[in-house]
Amino acid sequence: MNFYHALIDDLIGIEEFNAKVEEKVTKSGDLLDGHAAAMLVVREYGRHHTKICDLNEASSLASFFGRVLSITPPHEFKRPDGDTGVVASMTVGDGTGEVRVVLWDEKAQALGGEIEPGMVMEILGRPRGSPLQIHAVSLRESACEIICSQPEEGQGRAAPAPDSGCTIEVRLISLAHRTFTRRDGNAGEMAEAVIGNEDGVFRLVCWAPALIAGVAEDTCIRITGASRGENRHDHETEYILGEEGGVTAIDREIGVPLTTPADVTGEGRYSLRGVITSLQPPRRFTTRSGGVSWVRNLVISGGGGDVRTVIWGDAARLHLLTGETAEIYNATARPGRYSDLEVHIGRGSAIRVIHDDEKREIAVTGTVIASAAGTCIDTGRECYLLDEPTAPGTEVTVEGTVFRREITPGRYEAAVLRAGPLLERVEIFLDRVSQ
Fold first, then answer.
1. Does residue 335 carry a pLDDT above 80?
2. How far is C-alpha 358 from the geometric centre of its chain's CA atoms?
3. What pLDDT is attached to residue 178?
4. Helix or strand or coil: residue 297?
5. Per-position b or e across 38-75, b if 16+ CB within 10 A of its CB
6. Whole-prediction pTM value?
7. C-alpha to C-alpha distance for 15 and 21, rounded to whole angstroms
8. In the chain, which end has fewer C-beta atoms inside a 10 angstrom radius, N or C?
9. What average pLDDT does range 282-286 have in this prediction?
């Protein structure tokens, strides 16, 4: 009965659950067996078995019936801590769709002979990832009959079953680790990466972030044990990596094809290279969930054309400068507010700046001003970004390190105004105005 109690263990204790099951059996005159009675108790608490097309990664736990369509046999892998694990998977379906079910360790061993294609299984598991996969918590053979067919129009569909066990060689373009809170309140950790090779640019979701931790961006790597599937939001190819996978650096140089802004002529996914010709400061906004995020607008030019670009999230706060060359990966082109195409850089996308600057020591005196790029110090001849907030109009002397026209101060103090340097700056300003 623990199989069914797990569906409502946040609502009722095991002893009370067993008592209600026994009561159902007794009242039925023993016409109900324990499994049927348990299902009735679960349904009374508002939870029940679902169809595959209704499975949702937002659920912490789901139960459903599915006919086994194919099986990927169990194989061993090394966990980050050195222990040996076992993983296997099977694709199951019902009349509404198909989904991949992943089994670990002792449950994976059951696919070595106890479970065969054609059997109908009752499955309890945790939905994970995109494309959706079910990580089995418990499963058992069921006597119910399931006829698998394609979903009818308007009925929806589960994500297509991904190709499991893929090996790919790619360049790691960007990598970010993040934590999240599951619906059951527990914390989780994952890594998201943008990867690419001669075939294109893809999103990688890694549910075992230790596998890719410490790998530097721009490293060429071999990924093993990945699942290749389709993102259910935009149907683009992406890869899912779990504990059974592996990541190793390789010596082979891998190129990623890039286009130009002039080639962005319709909706779709693009990876391109161009020059930043217009740049607005980042703007903070409140998300629908009540959180804080950022957005930034710029224009990228090249190939005889340009394209409006929108950066979402923390990437909007990157240090960018007009005149620099930017590479944008796996961005989405879609109509903007005024119907012209815009390239949007969000989750699953990346932006990188190509520059030749080297860090050097500097000492300057000037006036702090506010600009579209951020807080700057204007010397009259040059303007540098400051990474420390300072009130505009302040005269300061700064000594520190400059990199890409941004100063990281080592010494920062109010400047003593002298007539000579001040007059020189006025003359420079007047020359600018007269030109």
1. yes
2. 32
3. 82
4. strand
5. bbbbbeeeebebbbbbebebeeebbbbbbbbeebbebe
6. 0.57
7. 10
8. C
9. 90
What is the CATH code for 167-249?
A: 2.40.50.140
Cα radius of gyration (the chain): 29
Of 213, 195, 212, the C-alpha closest to 204 is 195
Higher pLDDT, 281 or 148: 281
Q: How confident is the model at residue 147 (pLDDT cuts 50, 70, 90)?
A: low
Is 70 exceeded by the pLDDT of residue 160? Answer: no
Measure the CA–CA gap between 122 and 127, rounded to whole angstroms: 15
Give the DSSP H or E segment for 271. strand 268-279
How far, in Å, CA of 414 to CA of 404, rounded? 24
End-to-end CA distance of the chain: 85
Distance CA 117, CA 125 (A): 19
Element (H, E) at 245: none
Pick the closest to residue 119 from 48, 61, 71 (CA basis). 71
The mean pLDDT of 174-198, rounded to a whole number, is 81
- Domain 54-161: which CATH number of 2.60.40.10, 2.40.50.140, 2.60.120.260, 2.60.40.420: 2.40.50.140
Bridge-partner residues for 371, per DSSP?
Answer: 374
Among the four given CATH numbers 1.10.1740.10, 3.40.50.2020, 1.10.10.10, 2.40.50.140, the one describing domain 261-354: 2.40.50.140
Three-state DSSP class for 280? coil
Name the residue with higher pLDDT: 195 or 210. 195
Helix (H) or strand (E) holding 60: none
What distance in Å separates the CA atoms of residue 88 and residue 403, rounded to the nearest whole number? 50
Give the best-scoring range by mean pLDDT among 58-67, 93-102, 111-120, 367-376. 93-102
Question: What is the β-pairing status of strands 237-241 and 200-206?
Answer: parallel
Quick one: CATH architecture of 360-434? Beta Barrel (2.40)
Residue 209 has pLDDT above 50, yes or no: yes
What are the tens digits of pLDDT across the range 322-332?
Answer: 888 999 999 99
pLDDT of the residue at 208: 85
The DSSP-derived string for 103-131 is EETHHHHGGGTT--TT-EEEEEEEEETTT
Q: How many helices (H) and strands (E) does the chain have?
A: 5, 23
**Structure confidence at residue 198 (pLDDT):** 92
Burial call 21-33: b when 16+ CB within 10 Å, e when fewer: beebbeeeeeebe
> Which residue has tokens 């991904």?
162
What 3-state DSSP class applies to 180? strand
